[in-house]
Amino acid sequence: MSFLNPSNGAWSILALLVALLLVLVTFVKFTRLWTVILIALLPILGVWTFVKAPEWGLWFPKDVSTHGAGMDSLFNLILWMVAITFVLTEVGLVWCVFRYHDKVPGKSLFTHGSHKLEMIWTAIPAVALLVIAFAQIGTFKQIKFEDHWPTGGPYSKDKPIAHVIAYQFAWLMRYPDANGSFDSVDVIESPFDFVVPVDTDIMFQLKSRDVLHSFFLPNLRLKQDAVPGMTIPMWFQATEVGEYDLICAELCGWGHYKMAGRLIVKSKPDYEKWLADKRAALKSNGTADLEAAE
């Protein structure tokens, strides 16, 4: 186990050391030296955390979707850009503290700044934003654009696997009857659990009954606001059988914390069996539940 792994309490020791440096900066001589050391620790610890984060599991959870790799690449691109900017900024800050700490006798020089410098630090972020804008087009086109939605499989925009409904404070998944209708009495309802087959293009409709919610599957890198009055088509393909978090990523009220659902990915035969059992239980008029209880 690494000494600086957050799980072994080393971060508590580092926090105490930083607090001690703050005390030294405040009450002890050689203030400039301690200030420089304190500020220099920020990029050092920041870069160290950046390097070790994948090993410690501080980034996203395991990817189990077909388009997760593209989202992770985009995340890493932005992370590197921010990390480089952070380090350069902190190095400049440390140098300014060390270089301009002493008071210089004489009259201060007032300036309105440099037009050339302002153009430079405006152009650089603009170029960075353009890089991000063009880099994300391919990934988001695959997920969001209608001409890239699945059409050849069992589910499509007009024939979704389910309607996913968000409301305060729960998730409700409505599966169609055997004829594909969502309006009959034989619609299957599954609170909190979104059950899907593996290795299948899953198309569903996202809705909200009341306020703004946000459908978030961290393991599938999929996130979309559920907007009242709108029906939003979404799709994904899960590549591994298992159970994964389904959460609401939008503060939707006092019971926001209750919206902890599950994405349950089953093998195709297991999914068909689950669906058949649900339909049989629905048509049994409760007798199946009584038999199970006995």
Fourth-level CATH superfamily of the largest domain: Cupredoxins -  blue copper proteins
What is the helix tally?
6
Percent of residues in helices comes to: 40-55%
Helix/strand/pairing class, anyone? alpha+beta
CATH class identity of the largest domain: Mainly Beta
Radius of gyration: 27 Å
Oligomer: single chain
Q: What is the residue-mean pLDDT, rounded to a whole number?
A: 84
User: Per CATH, what is the topology of the largest domain?
Assistant: Immunoglobulin-like
Please provide the count of β strands: 10
Strand content: 15-25%
Would you identify the CATH architecture of the largest domain? Answer: Sandwich
Overall description:
By secondary structure, this protein is of the alpha+beta class. It folds into 2 domains: 6-101 and 112-146; 162-293, Sandwich (Immunoglobulin-like), CATH 2.60.40. The chain is built from 6 helices and 10 strands. The strands form 2 sheets. The protein has a 5-stranded mixed β-sheet with strand order 3-2-1-5-8. Helix 1 (10-27) runs antiparallel to helix 2, helix 2 runs antiparallel to helix 3 (68-99) and helix 3 (68-99) runs antiparallel to helix 4. The radius of gyration is 27 Å and the shape is elongated. The mean pLDDT is 84.
Spell out the key features of this protein.
294 residues; alpha+beta; Immunoglobulin-like; five-stranded mixed beta sheet; elongated
